[in-house]
Amino acid sequence: MSDPTIIDCKQQAVNIGDIIRVTTLSKQFIKSFPEDERILIESMIGNFFKIIAIDEEGQACIMREWHDERGQLQTHVIALDSEEMEKV
């Protein structure tokens, strides 16, 4: 059995290591984060990320890193639906 093809919003195949632009994120998804992190999640829209993994549901995963107010590294790994990304 072959792995399912993961596609972006323009029906282009995407794979681990590809660079994508986040085109949108659902409001419900953004609201699932603590209020102080929402701006960081929203700021991902329009920016470029490398696909670091494919999750068990067949979604492309990207990672956002930043330093909090204490200087500690924070990360979020999120899985994207096809309409949320565009391969560049």
From TrEMBL:
What domain of life?
Bacteria
Q: Would you tell me the protein name for this molecule?
A: DUF4926 domain-containing protein
Source organism: Undibacterium seohonense
